[in-house]
Amino acid sequence: MNFLYRLFGTGAAHHHSSSSANVEKDLRKKRRMLQLTEDQIHVQEETYETLTETIKNMKLHLESIRQREQEMILLQIDTERELQEDYENYLQKGKKDEEYEKKYEVSRKFLEETMAAKKQEIKAKMEQYEARIKSLELKAQEILKTKQVTEDTNYLLNEEVQRLETQRQKEFVAGDNYDQLGEEEDLEASSNIPLSLQTVPVQPQIHDDQHPPQSSSESNISPNSAGKDLWERKDHSDTI
Q1: pLDDT tens profile 54-96
Q2: Which of 44, 48, 43 is nearest to 140 (CA)?
Q3: Does this model's pTM top 0.85?
Q4: CATH class for domain 2-187?
Q5: Where is the composition biased (Low complexity) (predicted)?
């Protein structure tokens, strides 16, 4: 950083500091975004696991409802057969019994209506479970797709963070190297660097009575110690 002050004055050093600050600010922002995407991935994974577990349990429950339906159908068949056998035994006796016939009709009708209502109830419950399972499966698929997008974003952010960290490290190392430059390396490094922030060619000044030193406004050189020190060292080396 001292090198920048010597060569360009406070303006260039401020520019370097501003650039480093921008890199640091961008790095903090990208790190925060990276952390947010990692948190999102974690939440999405937990949500997906919860959904799949819920779907699994609902499918098991749905299967138990189907089994109950089959058991009810078998029960209806057995009950109807028993009623029919009992009624046939009544007919074989050949003796009319109006009271029995009334009870038989009530039982048969009750069984028919009850079983029809139970079947409808079970069917509605099964349709409800099937619709719920389908909805949860669609949500699980959406979460997987969203998770993939989040993972892709996380990958790109991770690469960007690594790039910014490398850039920051390079600027940090470059600043250290500039601070440690010796006199010869200092002159060599500055040989192609103008001593003014403007793009006007710089010529060394001749200090004698016939050629008085130009003012800073005429030379377009910033009045800082960097230019004076460098040119004095250059004039001194030319006279040796």
Answers
A1: 999 999 999 999 999 999 999 999 999 999 999 999 999 888 8
A2: 48
A3: no
A4: mainly alpha
A5: 212-225
